[in-house]
Amino acid sequence: MTIDTEATTTPRIESDVATLQRDGIVGLQGAFSREWVERLRRDMMDSFWSAIQRPGGAIGRGPRRWYVEVHPEAISGFVDLVTHPWVSAMSEAVLGPEFEIVELGFDTPFEGARNQPWHRDFPSPRDTWHDRRITSLAFNLTGVDVTQDMGPFEIAPGTQYDDGRDWDHEMFPPREIWPGYAERGTRKYPQMGDISCRSALTIHRGTAHPSPIGRPVLVLGVDAPGAGHAELHDMMVTPAFHAGLPESIRRRLVCRVVDELVPVTQKHDIEGLVMGAD
Questions:
Q1: Has residue 81 got a pLDDT over 70?
Q2: CA-to-CA distance for 65 and 113, rounded, in angstroms?
Q3: Per residue in 30-59, is it b (16+ CB within 10 Å) or e — as a string?
Q4: Single pTM value for the model
Q5: Residue 62 pLDDT > 80, yes or no?
Q6: CATH code for the domain in which residue 235 is found
Q7: SS3 letters across the chain
Q8: Is residue 278 situated within a structural domain?
Q9: What total of structural domains would you count in the chain?
C-alpha cells in the first residue's frame, strides 16, 4: 500500500471535501501500488467467475455488465483499503466519526456492454435533496488502467442534490432530460492505484465497452449512522477474521460473524439498468 502524506493533511482533506460537496465526486491518484491492485483484480475476477455460476450471484446491470457483492475475506487487501488514511479521513469528515462500512462489491463490464441509462444508485433522502447533506459515500478502485474503449464511468457533477422524487423509482431521470446530463457529463479514466470518493446520488452511467478487456471496479459503501443502506446488504466474516481486524474497523463494520461463509444473496437489484439505454 502507498500512503501519500500530502493527501491526508487537514488542508487537503478540507479541499477534497469541498470538491465532493460541489461536484459529488473527488479522487486521489496513486493511493495504492500497482502490485496491490493486481491482487485486487485477481480477487475480483475469481469472485466473478464463482458468482456467475450460481443464481443471484451476479446481478445484471445492463447487457454484459454485472455487479457482485463479496465478503471482506474475498478481498486480500480489505484491511489496507478500509484503513487507508484518505478513506478514513474522507469518511469521517463527511459522515461523522461513527461512520459505518456497509457494502463491498464490484461492477464488471465486459465487451459488448452498452450505455446505461443516466441514474443514481438509490433514492435521495430528505437530508440530501432538501438539506444538501451527504449521508453515504462510495469509494471506487479500478482493477485496470481505464481507456476510452473500456466503457469509462461518466458522471454529471453537482447532480447529487437533484430532487428526483418524481423519477422512476426515484432513481432514473426521464429520458427527455438526459441531454442536460450528457452536456455536464465527465468521463473518468482512473489508473491502477487511484481511488475516488463519490456520492452514489450523483447522476452517472457506465458507457459502451467495445474492448475485449473487462473493467472490474471495486465499490466500498460507507454510511452515516441511520442512513439505512446496511439493510440492503449482508456482509459476513468468520470469527478469526473479525478478531484480527483493527478495533477501529471492527466497530464500524456492519456484518454478521458466522462460522462458515455463504455466498451473498444480493438484495439491491437496480431493475432499471437491466436492459441498458440503447
A1: yes
A2: 6
A3: ebbeeebbebbbebbeebbeebeeeeebbb
A4: 0.94
A5: yes
A6: 2.60.120.620
A7: CCCCHHHHCHHHHHHHHHHHHHHCEEEECCCCCHHHHHHHHHHHHHHHHHHCCCCCCCEECCCCEEEEECCHHHCCCHHHHHCCHHHHHHHHHHHCCCCEEEEEEEEEECCCECCCCCECCCCCCHHHHCCCCCCEEEEEEECCCCCHHHCCEEECCCHHHCCCCCCECCCECCHHHHHHHHHHCEECCCCCCCEEEECCCCCEEECCECCCCCCCEEEEEEECCCCCHHHHCCCEECHHHHHHCCHHHHCCECCEECCCCCCCCCCCCCHHHCCCCC
A8: no
A9: 1
pLDDT value for 185: 97
Range of the domain at 131: 5-272
Computed over every residue of the chain, the mean pLDDT equals: 93
Query: What average pLDDT does range 12-34 have in this prediction?
Result: 97
In a domain, residue 277? The reply is no
